[in-house]
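Two folds, back to back.
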Amino acid sequence: MAGSIGTVGDALDNALCESTIGLFKTEAIDDGGPAWSDPRAVEWQVARWVHWYNTARLHSSIGDMPPLEFETTYRQATTVTPTPEVA
């Protein structure tokens, strides 16, 4: 991944990061539950959300599959299994 280096006023320079942070804040932190009273609880929620985001969320651009399932399916489809030679 290449670093993002833009010029002053670039509206899309940090769009991906800002979009992900917005999702995180909506889904994990400002979820309507009780106020966060302990930094450890916030840390645990962050870890849970990141794990869910990277493994289980449904992603529309890959056929509404979780990323981990899509990756596994892709690897199985593109991995060549050697066949034993018959003598």
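---
second:
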Amino acid sequence: MTLRKAPYIFVGQVDLNVQNLERSLTFYQNVIGFQVLEQTNNKAVLTADGKTPLLVIEQPDDVIPKQPRTTGLFHFALLLPKRADLANVLKHLITIQYPIGASDHIVSEALYLNDPDGNGIEIYTDRPASTWTWQDGKVSMATEQLNAENLLQEAGDAEFKVLPAGTLMGHIHLHVSELEKTAEYYHEGLGFDIVNDTYPQALFVSTGGYHHHIGLNTWNGIGASTPPVNSVGLISFKLIFPNEEARKIVLEQLEKIGAFVQEENGIIISKDPSGNQIQLSV
């Protein structure tokens, strides 16, 4: 499935606060396989292809640890081009003995881990879209045990060093404080389709018939508070629109439902009802 094609809206970049930039850079380069695109004393832009920013990590001067039971990042998810790529990552993580989880979601196979600050990461590959099961606009997903032995059969002999150049930011999964206003914001405001609502206290939304571009859950508790801006965790994520007209339509929809929207230094910012910040980009 082509994610980077009109008229789809997709996640392009995720920005995170971390406590120690050098420690995080070591992790994201050596464990995940990112390359550094740009770097300053307190910020680094990370890429898989040497030109496209996927993840930005920043160390605020007054940074505080990740706050429990708050809204924000559950995980960001890196989509690899091929199943063999996921096999190579799994082999690498086993070799360096990094703690991971793993799941088979029917539509995809996924590995899960945390960075040194507890920011959640998913690394996954999709099964062919032709194998996904849809009924009444909803896609079937589940959380089952990953067949790691079968996956590892596709791993190559070479040592894993960097993410494949075709790696994308496949989706983002967020903690939110409630689901009713959240569904209104993402569906009626941003224009995403609700494609799965079978998981307890969770919704999954997408455009273009993808299994999900954004996951939303209240697993940190209904009424969870928004963390301080200097807390470890999500700063913002970027949604990429196919053109200015598509963004204009969404801005009108957001205004209609009374959502937060403002422009800062030429960047259009919105916030969902739980305070998760989104850059609306073309």
